[in-house]
Design brief:
Helix content: 10-25%
CATH architecture: Beta Barrel
Structural class: alpha/beta
Largest sheet: 8 strands, mixed
Shape: globular
Low-confidence stretches: 6-41
Radius of gyration: 16 Å
Mean pLDDT: 86
CATH topology: L,D-transpeptidase catalytic domain-like
Length: 231
């Protein structure tokens, strides 16, 4: 399997557990298979962002997750590609933390079939997307023993601490700027600040699967998730 950043960062050292294999299968499901519930008659449920700034799209999606129960009582994360932000919630929709993120170099919500098995050198710039969708995610370790959160094993997409092995890419500096305009640099993986991964992502997903929702940037949320507006 080709890594979406580099082989050492995302490749798995051995066979995946049955939990991860099941996660990969669910991640590959088409959006039309995702079940939703109608709005509750007694009133809508909403996510708790506390005082965190978030786009309307991120707030609306988090509200839909909580109101519909689409996360199946699991912790979840929302990746807002347009704003280049990640929001991590507990199973009940309370925000655990948020941070900037680096994403795939190319805009787009789909991935090239079989890209996870291709050598990195063969992946063209226009193919380096972070695919939109609903993914069952789980913590794992790469070949160097460093922890990552698998988002889509088949597509070699993971969330992990920012890679700083190539100073010329200025990844840490990109995360620190106030604009999302310079956050498109990766082969598709979701790079987050190291402390955010350690203090927020790891505790949220330790001992449990979770759901990662990657919001679309060229499609509608309803098209990708069959979601609805929470009123």
């Amino acid at each position: 399997m080709a890594a979406a950043e580099d082989t050492a960062q995302t490749a798995h050292p051995g066979g995946l557990s049955s939990v991860i294999e099941a996660s990969a299968l669910e991640a590959a499901a088409t959006p039309s298979t995702i079940a939703t519930r109608p709005l509750a008659a007694h009133g809508s449920k909403r996510a708790n962002f506390d005082r965190e700034h978030a786009s309307h799209a991120a707030r609306q999606h988090a509200d839909w997750v909580v109101d519909s129960g689409d996360n199946h009582n699991l912790p979840f994360a929302i990746v807002d590609k347009t704003d280049a932000r990640v929001f991590v919630f507990d199973a009940e929709g309370r925000l655990r933390g948020a941070a900037a993120a680096l994403l795939g170099l190319a805009r787009g919500d789909d991935t090239v079939p079989g890209i996870g098995n291709r050598p990195m050198a063969s992946i063209r710039p226009e193919e380096r997307t972070t695919p939109a969708g609903r993914f069952v995610a789980a913590l794992d370790r790469n070949v160097r023993g460093k922890e990552i959160l698998w988002v889509s094993y088949d597509d070699a997409i993971s969330m992990h601490p920012v890679i700083t092995t190539k100073p010329e890419e200025r990844r840490a500096q990109r995360l620190a700027t106030p604009t999302p305009l310079d956050n498109r640099i990766s082969y598709g993986c979701i790079n987050v600040p190291a402390k955010f991964f350690e203090n927020v992502v790891r505790p949220a997903f330790t001992g449990t699967d979770g759901i990662v929702y990657v919001l679309p940037e060229t499609k509608s949320a309803h098209e990708v998730f069959a979601s609805y507006e929470v009123e």
